[in-house]
Design brief:
By secondary structure, this protein is an alpha/beta fold. It has one domain: Vaccinia Virus protein VP39 (Rossmann fold, 3-Layer(aba) Sandwich), CATH 3.40.50.150. Helix content is 36%, strand content 26%. It contains nine helices and eight strands. Strands 1, 2, 3, 4, 5, 6, 7 and 8 form an eight-stranded mixed beta sheet that branches. Strand 2, helix 4 and strand 3 form a beta-alpha-beta unit. The chain starts with a helix and ends in a 7-residue tail after the last strand. The C terminus is likely disordered.
Length: 263
């Protein structure tokens, strides 16, 4: 199946659950950390790529002039529009579209951002170059995503577990790979912040509607990883009887170089 169809299928299934305030992706603390790390000004025009249900767009909107939010999945955008209307946010325009072919003119936006999306792209360099294209020459590009371990073997295990839970997952990058990706897109990283994020295993699998058999296999694998050097890269632990694990989230903010590299 075409990967974009897989993405639409998975996120159409997940859209209604994205409002769950117990999910890490809905965490106000994490959204505040992200938005406070972005170089925002009141007059800015911002693009949110792969915006989903608009968590980042809605967090940014009060701080800037206007936000364009684009996503591949209509069901996600429907949720985004509903929530923006509920919050009376009138400066966000939601649009269906493909991150690999952004429907905007070159140099339109002061800031182009994407949150928790790179690990869903088959070839992340393509959307990243598109994001750089529509960013102003003196603008900034921000990518926020979960990071894989640096060890290639552990990273492959980590990503295989993520894919078994969510078929739209391709590969989380390591920090080293993220830096190389920015360089290949003609972007000079100005700031790169990381943070450990605690994830509840049950909510993690419920959000994606993971099949019971797969969920049980994932749980068994993480339980085997307890109290040892993490072979999965997920660093699982038990708190109050509940299985949890740690993700690493990164915020990379880059500036366009004078001449972007081409493949």
């Amino acid at each position: 199946m075409d990967h974009n169809r897989v993405v639409r299928k998975e996120f159409s299934k997940q859209a209604a659950r994205f409002g769950d305030q117990g999910l890490t992706l809905s965490s106000q603390d994490l959204l505040d950390w992200i938005v406070d790390s972005l170089p925002l000004k009141k007059e800015f025009r911002v693009l949110d790529v792969a915006a989903g249900t608009g968590h980042l767009s809605r967090a940014i909107a009060p701080r800037v002039n206007e936000v364009a939010a684009i996503d591949l999945t209509p069901a996600m955008l429907a949720q985004a529009r509903e929530e923006a209307a509920r919050q009376n946010l009138t400066n966000i325009v939601f649009e269906e579209g493909n991150a690999e072919r952004l429907p905007y003119e070159t140099g339109r936006f002061d800031l182009v951002a994407s949150r928790l999306a790179l690990h869903h792209f088959e070839k992340p360099i393509i959307p990243l170059r598109e994001m750089a294209r529509v960013c102003k020459p003196d603008g900034r590009l921000a990518a926020i995503d979960l990071m894989a371990p640096e060890d290639p073997k552990i990273a492959e295990t980590y990503n295989s577990l993520e894919r078994s839970r969510d078929p739209s997952h391709t590969a989380a990058l390591s920090i080293t790979q993220m830096k190389a990706l920015f360089a290949d897109a003609g972007l000079a990283i100005e700031t790169l912040e990381t943070r450990n994020v605690e994830v509840d295993f049950q909510r993690w699998t419920q959000m994606t509607g993971t099949a019971p058999g797969v969920t049980e296999a994932l749980k068994e694998r993480l339980l085997k990883d307890l109290g040892a050097d993490s072979e999965t890269g997920m660093r699982p632990f038990i708190r109050n009887g509940a299985l949890k694990f740690l993700q690493v989230w990164a915020i990379a903010v880059g500036k366009k170089a004078s001449v972007a590299k081409r493949a």
